[in-house]
Amino acid sequence: MFEAVLLTVITAATPLLIAAVGELVVERSGVLNLGVEGMMIMGAVVGFAVANQTGSGSLGVVAAIVAGMAMSALFGFLVLILVTNQVASGLALTILGLGLSGMIGEAFIGVPGLRLPELYIPVLSEIPFVGPVFFQQDALVYVSFLLVGAVSYMLFKTRAGLILRAVGDNHVSAHALGYSVVRVRFMATLFGGACAGLAGAYMSLAYTPQWVENMTAGRGWIALALVVFASWLPFRVVAGAYLFGAVTVLTFHAQAQGLGIPSQFLSSLPYLATIAVLVLISANRRLTLVNTPACLGKPFVPDR
Asked: What residue ranges define each of the domains in the chain, with the CATH number in brackets?
């Protein structure tokens, strides 16, 4: 029983973790992208459609990443080149993604999905309990942890990470030192879009291998909250993602046990937990300010 619960927690947490890591990089550069939900749902529908038409889950994943990057490129063009309001543009991106995905996915409703295969590691996969939990996951679960490690190393151990954080903390000084603020932020935004698209692909090709309209169900917003919850530190995102994944799974198990609690209330628990965490963090001003990029959400117009 515990093994089954743990396996479902991993699958529930993985899309949150992937999307949140991508958004963390975006926000570290000083850009606030509220369009994560729209990019995720586009990744989900495009990944499912391509996998269904080609019979290849790998091509579906690649297509989902491209779809996420295309949406983020549109957002980057609006907020970095045209210097539009980041909050309004992000919300518009989410609305666009939800509407466009519904139109694209209409032909795939009820169509059997293609599930990403689970990896099998000889000997290790056969260990009781440990094997199925840690060594029989699909590739994207391992990719999520590799992303966390790679992003953490890049941010705090490389020159590129130092430049990215400098742009997010003081874009005027970074520009004065000769760094292209717009280019750095655009690249970070593309990376965030790729991660959101990948998270969407996981939803439609691994978590629930089918297409259902609005199947991300607010997970993009939870990913945004996770970045704040983690104080913009990659490894804390892992703890947050698995915490929220556990809350989601426990609501399903509570419904299955027939505890007499209204299903609507149980379904709202992950989002109530998100609100509660944000309220607790906001109450501590010192915790709110620590690691927060000083230029987050602030537009930048280079000297002409």
From this structure: 2-119+133-289 (1.10.3470.10)
